[in-house]
């Protein structure tokens, strides 16, 4: 008898191939880290490095998880390779190494690594932590630490003043001060970063872009610069460049809260709301900013924009409890029903202030006086400048009319 040959079914299930690359294993590692499954995270980070061995971010991620697991020697070997071969601009590796050596109670070598960090790093990201470690090492070694200079302190007082001017919406003054700082200290990456933002707020977009490129020439892996660059690419409509940079940022797993916050806010601005929501939740869960109402607003905006209205409502309620005098959370809570039932999909701004139209309405009815609030309140002033640069035609006309009442020197410079 002839055997019947099996015939393949014409209704076979379609199999979607999995793209096994560095991004795939990085994402698996992050999931494992979030669940505190460090052994799995280590395995996945190792695979990510195998696929992209020259990527310094992957290497630092691997060094970070090794340090978390107490494998300090292996962690330091990787960090040393990054700083000497892969990307010498990543001076934060010296700080990570100092931490590892301190945990190994090799205080002499920890001190050497810490001094290298302080003398070479321009950003000052870990300056406070370094000073604390210096005190600890001095105690253990029973002598003061010998250090000739702290590179990140150069121009620091003037830079702090410039940051205050930015926060107050005094962008013209900020630009004038920052231009002086970077002329004197051209390697001061943080000042260059803030100068690029000030140019952007003033509408000098080409200057903003060229300044960011200068930062990346100084330090190719500068996370703040890369985030700013992504926002600029979006503004200019450089879609292909934006997508490439976006994928790079998504592969980043920031260990420090300020880096995590920068990536989260950037993802929100770029419309990657689900990623932003995941990162903001991580800050709230593991960071030191649990009492900051603004952070709860950012997380609420990301949640709402991702389609999680119930989560957003809870987060705005928390913001309201932390800042009961503010109208911001109260306004969004009052608008929840209309926002959800509206035919037009609404996107909530991540900025911690009321929508411009609502601010304008409240200011017109304010007993304190419309012009006095714009003069005295830096948040109101800053949002008006933002609306002037980025709002629609009707919004810009409203702002110009309001500024016409005040016409101080800062506003005159802005309108020229």
CATH topology of the largest domain: Serine Threonine Protein Phosphatase 5, Tetratricopeptide repeat
Shape: globular
Low-confidence stretches: 6-10
Radius of gyration (Å): 25 Å
Please give the oligomerization state of what you see: single chain
SSE class:
mainly alpha
Number of strands: 0
CATH class designation of the largest domain = Mainly Alpha
User: What is the helical fraction, as a range of percent?
Assistant: over 70%
What is the average of the pLDDT values?
83
Portion in strands: under 5%
The structural domain count equals 4
CATH superfamily of the largest domain: Tetratricopeptide repeat domain
Listing every helix as H and every strand as E from the N terminus to the C terminus, the arrangement reads HHHHHHHHHHHHHHHHHHHHHHH
Per DSSP, the total helix count is 23
Span of the ends, CA to CA: 96 Å
CATH architecture of the largest domain: Alpha Horseshoe
Biggest β-sheet: count, sense, barrel?
A: none
Describe the structure concisely for a colleague.
By secondary structure, this protein is mainly alpha-helical. It has four domains: 22-146, Serine Threonine Protein Phosphatase 5, Tetratricopeptide repeat (Alpha Horseshoe); 154-252, Tetratricopeptide repeat domain (Serine Threonine Protein Phosphatase 5, Tetratricopeptide repeat, Alpha Horseshoe), CATH 1.25.40.10; 268-350, Serine Threonine Protein Phosphatase 5, Tetratricopeptide repeat (Alpha Horseshoe), CATH 1.25.40; 353-416, no CATH class. It has helices at 22-34, 38-51, 56-68, 72-86, 92-103, 107-120, 127-141, 156-167, 171-184, 189-202, 205-218, 223-236, 239-250, 257-269, 273-286, 293-305, 309-322, 328-341, 356-364, 370-376, 378-390, 393-406, 409-415.
